[in-house]
Amino acid sequence: IEFTCLSSSYASALMYCIGNSLRVKLLVMTIDRSFW
Predict the structure, then answer these.
(1) What pTM was estimated for this model as a whole?
(2) Furthest CA-CA distance within the chain
(3) What is the DSSP letter of 26?
(4) CA dihedral defined by 13, 15, 21, 26, rounded to 10 degrees?
(5) How far is CA 27 from CA 3, 11, 14, 24, 33, in A?
(6) Banded model confidence at residue 4, pLDDT cuts 50, 70, 90
(7) What is d(CA 17, CA 26) in angstroms, rounded to the nearest whole number?
């Protein structure tokens, strides 16, 4: 049970990290587009 909880929280943390990096990439693309 502990292992499942740990792996699910790890997966949600990974998804959160991926979501943040995608948001940053989108922000950078938007700033880049406004500069050009």
Answers:
(1) 0.51
(2) 53
(3) H
(4) -150
(5) 36, 24, 20, 5, 10
(6) low
(7) 14
